[in-house]
## 1
Amino acid sequence: MNDRRMLHLNAFLMSTGHHEASWRLPESDPYANTDVRHFQRLAQTAERGRLDSIFFADSPVLWGDVGRRPAGSLEPTVLLTAIAAATTRIGLIATASTTYNDPFNLARRFASVDHVSGGRAGWNVVTTAGPAAARNFGLDDQPAHRDRYERAAEFLQVAYQLWDSWDDDAAHADKTAGIWADQEKVRPIDHVGTHFRVAGPLNLPRSPQGRPLIVQAGSSEDGKDLAARYAEAVFTAQQTLADAQGFYADLKRRTASVGRDPDTLKILPGIVPVIADTEIEARRREQELDDLIRPEYARAQLAQQLRVRPEDLPLDRQLPADLPDEDEIEGAKSRYTLIVELGRREKLTVRQLIGRLGGGRGHRTFSGTPEQVADAITDWFDAGAADGFNIMPAVLPSGLEAFVDHVVPLLVRRGLFRAEYTGTTLREHYGLARPANGYADLPSQAVTA
Amino acid sequence: MNERQLKLNLFIYPGGHHEAAWRRPDSSIERVLDIGYYQDLARRAEDEKLDAVFLADGPSLADNIRYASRFRLEPFTWLAGIAAVTSRIGLIGTASTTYLEPYNAARLFASLDHLSKGRAGWNIVTTGAPDAAYNFGLDGHPVHAERYDRAREFVDVVTQLWDSWEDEALVADRASGVYADPGLIHEIDHVGRHFRVRGPLNTPRTPQGRPVYVQAGSSEDGRSFAASYAEAVFTAHQTLDSAQEFYGDIKRRAAGLGRDPAQLLVLPGISPYIGSTEAEARALKQELDELTQPAYSLHLLRRLLGVDLSGHDLDAPFPRELVALDGDRAESSRSRLVVDIVDRERPTIRQLLHRFAGARGHWVVAGTPEQVADRMTEWFTQGAADGFNVMPPWLTGGFDVFAEQVLPILRRRGLFREEYTGSTLRDHYGLPRPTSGYTAPVARERNLA
């Protein structure tokens, strides 16, 4: 082990792979989405590669086009707990919405995953864009972007207080004296805010990591501000080195400006690696997948993302000039801008743009040999664009196996990635300290980040 | 082999059901936050071919944890961890209709049913503990009738969400690229007094179609609710008469609603104290009772009856005249049960505390293995029970004794299975797999109307 900065690698798992047509390959199991064994094996593969963590996206709505690609999945905290039983080291990051959950229930569930996994839980905090989810929770439309982020910040404040509501040594189970816990080391939080009133305490002792790792994945202005204050890892979609460097510098600056050590926030852009023995073969593999996309459906989804009608997007023409500005968009702002800029910058036809998005929904696709993929990762890492990567295999399980077996060893040889785990918790993998209990030395109720 | 067989669940309470059992030298109190402890227990219960394990729950911390480990295992995650290491035993989790959103609850249980391949059950509660309200922004606990009104609508919504994917919805045709038939995935468009939910669920229909519906309140509202919705009822009775009255009443109510009474299982709790002689069994109970802390027991009693007896002579007769059940206590079947004990047996305060310490009002049986088996057989054959929630006073030893000494007798009598004959909880309970309401012709017509 050397002293140099090390990469953090997270495997972003999704049914049969991130390419929307991956389920159509003969090697894929189209029913994988509800098969816990599929995901347990993927987690074991990631753990064999000594990756930091695995991750599931989620939204409380049936999203995507279920007619065309796998949709409908298992709830990630529950799925990750079942995966915890089949693994021992790898971190387990679940997405959950601050807009459509109660803080008591969710803080508790994440504390529980942390207990059950022995300190491997992470929470990707999302505010959930779109009116469709709102309609599953009694609303006609999503709350405004700003309101969702304000609620998210307060939600996190409540969660921190609940996680800290038990001192680490509160329960000591003295059989002789008959004392199970020190009542005075467990205290109500009595939070009263704009969105929540929560008395507490949590009904579960403090978890192994103290607090689960906080991840954030929105790259809008509000999203970056939330990340700077609370996040310990950020997943982001960046298409070019220049964009990624700009995002990296901006977010580290924001983190420093709220008084945090910028190194306590790890930035992980997504990359969809398509790996083969030769570059030509890798590109052929990517093309083969793109050819399985049904363009008429993909166009309908793109039209929805861009707030236009499908007929406004002829397949063999570039994007129309008169698309709305990001400011006019209420949900998924940063992804909207990314798609429009990708199409314009590379002068892609709608058909080409659909192929690029089909691979990684806006994340960077990279086809090549293991050396080339390792180079692509090293270049961004060394150029101030990333602290690591969110690995999004186009096809699962084969894409993850290829990455673990052929790319990871190169990164280890270059001294950029661990050969063995040095810790047992997710925080230890990410090089983050276990948070002190905010109540430990504070008489006041004001426990914050 | 008798046709009618006992249904037996292992009701898991972290430190055992007797409130002071954790103080025994051989208790597993050191492991109560270790998932391995519960996984071992569940595997043990599965080896014994029990129907299910069950976790009680409430979204708040008991306000006296000094003398007893009254934290809560979060059921979804804990059961997912158990599901991963078992293959047959049912997994029944408690979830509150008062403090969850139906979309989230439907998703969590559907996920548990998928990852356990059809072993999930939902113990539907409205949450009795008034403290929970303050964890969810409310000024006070909603009244009994209002909670049950919400519960009915909640269960209707969850049922529709579970049915929203018909069984045939997944097509997974690689050649045509059709993943699912959107015509078989339905928006539920529920608009009611408590909820508006669009649907569909974001998880395909589960192995059991719907997880098993369990209910555990025996108040008037609870009975009426159970007759409509429950497939199994957990209930607390001290005497054969009381259990028979309940059994007859609930079956009659179910029949009155056009249901097959055999598809509503009545499962009283039983906490067995087993010795080689009856005297030895009673001594075991006595030994645990003497480990109780009166301050704690009095606190629990105050919660149930609304009277504070601290400062009273514990060996004086229980002052019945001080008890006047009002508000929610007037509706609570458990409060009523305690008053009935007082009226029937005229105990001293200490005797009542000990009586209650055993299993919080559930049936405590102390005797030889034969005697315990006899009492269970009596209730089973005399119209008082279809099976039992087995509540070992201490864990894990209390369950081992039951499994090793009582189960063989019940098997010899042909009353309990030697082997599993099915793989889902519905199979174990002898319940049919429900058809989606959208698939049944009548409902389909209604849906198209």
Note: Residues 67 and 83 of chain B are 31 Å apart (CA to CA).
## 2
Amino acid sequence: MSVDLRTSYLGMELAHPVVVSACSLAFDPANLKRMEDAGASAIVLPSLFEEQIVHDQMAVHEFYEFTSEKFPEALSVFPEMEDYNTGPEAYLRLVEQAKRSLSVPVIGSLNGTSAGGWTRYAHLIQDAGADALELNIYHLVTDPLIDARAAEARYLELVAEVRKAVSIPLAVKLGPFFSALPHMATRLVDAGADGLVLFNRFYQPDIDLQTLRVVSRLVLSTSDEVRLPMRWIAILSGRVKASLAATTGVHTPEDVLKLLLAGADVTMVASALYSHGIDHLRVLVEGVRAWLEEHEYTSVAQMKGSVSQANAPDPEAFERANYIRTLVDFTGSESTR
Amino acid sequence: MDRRSVTVDGNEAAAYVAHLTNEVVAIYPITPASPMGELADAWSAAGRENLFGVVPDVIEMQSEAGAAGAVHGALQAGALTTTFTASQGLLLMIPNMFKIAGELIPTVFHIAARSLATHALSIFGDHSDVMACRSTGWAMLASSSVQQAQDMAMIGQMATLESRIPVLHFFDGFRTSHEVNKIEQLSPDDIRSLIDPRLVQAHRDRALSPDRPVLRGSAQNPDVFFQAREACNRFYDAKPGIVQGAMDRFAALTGRSYRLFDYSGAPDAERVIVVMGSGAATVAETVATLNARGEKVGMLEVHLFRPFAVDAFLRALPESTRALAVLDRTKEPGAIGEPLYQDVLTALIESGGIDGAMPRVIGGRYGLSSKEFTPGMVKAIFDELDAEQPKRRFTVGIVDDVTHLSLKYDPDFSTEPDDVTRAVFYGLGSDGTVGANKNSVKIIGENTPLHAQGYFVYDSKKSGAITVSHLRFGPRPINSPYLITRANFVACHQYNFLDRMDVLELAEPGATFLLNCPHGPDEVWERLPVEIQQTILDKQIQLYVVDAFRVAADAGLGQRINTVMQTCFFALADILPRDEAIGHIKDAIEKTYGKRGQVVLDRNNAAVDGSLVALHRVEVPHAVAGDRRRLPVVSGTVPDFVGRVTALMMTGKGDLLPVSALPVDGTFPTDTARYEKRSIAQEIPIWDPDLCIQCGLCSYVCPHATIRMKVFDPAGLNGGAEVLPTRPWKGKEFPGQHMAIQVYPDDCTGCGVCVDVCPAVSKEVSRHKAINMEAKTDEVLLRERARLDVFEHLPDPDRSTIKTETVKGSQVLLPLFEFSGACAGCGETPYLRLMSQLFGDRALIANATGCSSIYGGNLPTTPWSTNADGRGPAWANSLFEDNAEFGLGFRLAVDQLEAYARALLKGLAGSLGDELVHAILDADQRTEDAIREQRSRVSTLMRRLDALDSPDAIALRNVAEVLVRRSVWIVGGDGWAYDIGFGGLDHVMASGRDVNILVLDTEVYSNTGGQASKSTPRGAVAKFAAQGKGIAKKDLGMIAVDYGNVYVAQVAIGANPLQTLKAFHEAESYPGVSLILAYSHCIAHGIQMSTSMSHQKEATASGYWPLFRHDPRLAGAGATPFHLDSRKPTLPFREFAMKEARYAMLARTQPARASELMQLAQRDIDERWHFYEQMAGVERSVPDRVKGVVS
């Protein structure tokens, strides 16, 4: 008897729980097709960054303005182009093309900077045919005068605004740095999120010792990192009425399995595709299938959330910090001497 | 038929017809005609078809001579072909023009008529270029307005096809070519209906074809040449009638009627002015005013100058004419009179006068180099015609106090109607003022029944340039081709202009004055200079203020205040209802910026909305308050010439200088830029001596020589020690000496390049360096001025004690090139400054026309300067195309004079002392020390010669200075070296003579606005390469290396400062031809200028600009003279390229083509590197390294 790998995410039925996370590989339409061929059950497109659009448009504008009408012999120094492609059009064409060429669900992703931008671009992505939308929210609060309540309110208002603007399912991709994540998760769902994606893996700046300058560089995740989303999915599983997607550190079939056991509806993979190639998707799906078969599960649905905090034999294990456990064990052995 | 009203400039008006009626366009950029070629190229690039349903092929050639050749060929092969040019470019076409006319080939060349370079170059307008073509056999058709530029382009095309005689269609450079005006545009159907397809077919039938072969361009002998030359006469006889016929058909279609000679004025006029070009409109306007006052005057506008139709001319003149003034916008020194005057006189003499009576005829020059020609001047000419003894030859518009030819005129005489809005705007080139004003003219011209005119005056600086916009709006067509002198609206877009100029000079009483100002309406008054306050009171001017920078910044537009000021103008000028105006502005924003994106639109629209809120009327008090005064133009002691002449030019009052004030032969003093304190930087670099490692890099890269390092005896500081921070010199060559690094706060452009390259970083705060940009507050400015005063009074060290082979040492040398008008962050000028430091005190510089000749030689001031002994570079510009030959001429002369001096010296050895003579003759002058010793010997020689009075001694005294080795430099850009001047450059490279060629390679025609050259690399976008240049850059370096005996270096000062320095020393010391190819970043690359020098490192790291030196002195058996100075490329080309708009823009707009070109460009790099690596191992000996000298 074959195992039923189907799962449901944001109300969509997927063939299995291995989804491509937002990553730049998907900018290439050929890669999109390869992802589907390798077995992706859904694809989250890379994010449309409003900040990038603003930057690009103003850069073009400033370049032409800076060099025009300054000097009688050179009223301009650069030819005007037919189109500068600075807006969201290229991204929207990607969404359209993905929809045309793929049969699996296509999920748009958006990172906005202005209230108007979030809703405008969300609407455009929906119109381009996306099956769902993932909001890639990234507010780094650096102002000491802004408190947590205000910061959280910004997330909630934004989700509510976008919810009003679009009718397709909405997922919110979060960072892990909330003081009260379950409460925040609940409020996001109340504000209109159909799903939560845990977690956004932010680029962390680095310092170049040669130049003493701050640099950003892409560092791929490792399997070890899967434990952070796993913990929080286990805690949230059954507690929030929303789909749960796990991303960050999904490299092996074992990573997928653990996340499903913790309660994830889907797992999302990106770094592994950079490391092992797009065909690695097939390895993950087949690995999950093999494990389930080996362990005599009949379906993903059967095992999903079976080791969540609510269902685990030791629920407190998800709450303890490791060093406490280590310390207690050590003390215990001391006391028995 | 309803035709579209468009608001365009003269160039666009002419190019529109040319593009629709031609199949091939071969051009070369030259001011002020370049926009015609650029528009044609842009239209073809966008797929716009001509009348024949084909997209014209627009090709950029290597010179105008090349363009003319290509035109000639295309015409011979049957294509309708045209070109656009001006000035020197037209001169280069003359040989082909003789041929084209001699072969009776129909074509129209469109000319934005411009001054020819004589005692000086001028980019501005007059007829000296077209008049130089009188003998080519071309018909010459003149337009006097933007409307006519279109109409005559059409009439010329009609007439040339019918007559077979080629037509030179010309209009005044800048005044018409760049004036924006509302015209009625011909539709393509109009144009189609005016072109007879049978005539087009006839042209094609005459084309060369192997199916019906003929031969053209034969060589003829005395037996038949003459007769054959006369065989074309009938065509010329018929030409005027054909042109008039074309004019008549044009009139029947459009209602605009033209005659070969258009008369306007009183039918019974007694005094008539004959004129052609834009001046005709001024005369016509004045004639109307004078006749309305009861005078009887008229104007005869010449459209068809050649062939000169005597009958038509006479018919056009009223029989009542008793006196004629013929105006020429050109000068022919030595002629009896200028061309139009001579033709008019001949016509009158041949015809026996008018109705049998010979009128009085006088001839005058006006308007050379766009000199203003105003109604007041026209009136003066009519008055002169009335005088008992009028001047037979006169000039008007200047004060000639030498030959007294000039007419006096009343500058206040005005013909301007009251119902015309006249607005003048003072702005910076960088703040968008001109762009906004062009937009305003279009808004009114294209959305209202009103007529509109815009003309824009730019200064000659490439950084901190001031622009003055002159706009007129009124109910009737506006044909006033002269600047506004009575403005009813004045706007000053930069608050600090008030300190430097009288922006209300042109305001008429009761005018409105809009000021962009950081102060609110209640606090601004006493912060205005008292001179401005007084003018406001005297003229009862209404004052409005807006803090445009704040509005722009709030809207996210940075310093771009164009939209804000435009909105305020419409709000105050009362031309349109305010809401309607706002709507039009927003529509214009959409039209102008729509392609750039929604964010750009949103921010500009936000600026519009914010502007009205921030605009305030100022309640002007009844008296002057405060003590702020306008700054003097120059302060302190200045040379006489600077005080008398240069200072007036600097204040924009050069028009007032009389003839006697100017040099007779174009010779100007150098060392004057120091008096032009423009103070344009908002931030300036400040030295932190505690961090400084004294590397000298900041000074080394400074484009304007405004960061300097000096080493000196601290005892010489006297009281200055507390003012000027100093530190002990780190180095053994100056024991006990101190050093300082000092900014020139009023000369610095604030580019920030020095800060970018500074390697010394604070241990505590990583962004703090040994040099840092700081806001130029009043406090900072005063402090730095005080420091500079101390710094400048410290003596420069003895050159012979300086280690000039180190970067640090080179920067202790005094720059003899300073404070040029180049762009902030210019990539060319650091090389010139370095050259001036190393060799300037004995340098002769031949400078090709281009950016370097403009920032190096455009008045009012000159950046080439002198040292304490009064020595410095002697600089001259000949042409664009001949600079290598020009510089070689310097060397030939120097060598001859030196040979002469040496011969005299030998002959006088007995009188002068053998020891001295031989020491001079045998001196090796390859080092600073040796040159100092030779200078000393020559001084001794001069003293001894003073005691002798033989003819040889006197002769030697006159030439002895050349015994100190001269350094000849041939400088220019890539347009010169790779394209127009390459033939000469190649010849000079083959000469073996001791010249140093410095190519400032920006990989694009920078000065004329970014057209592609053969140096433009594959994949880069430039004008005429809007799809990205498809072919690879020419490898000029390897062409030179191929000669074997040419020293060649490819350098990038920001990538490897020391290699650059080595190359300059080696090139200069090599006693043959040296070529330095210097990578010069440019604003046309679309890079961050402040980090441009760091960016050069990536140019080299990617292999895009590999560094090498080829030194023939290292050649020999088993030797490898070619040395690669950069490492194997480590950076993908794409990573370098995507930081430049010229590459990144294509990746954005045409990703597939960009990707293909990028791959090819990477292969170019890989292949070239592979080739260079092999070259570095190639053994080579050079039998004859230089002419007669092997070192």
Note: Chain A is about 40% helix and 15% strand.
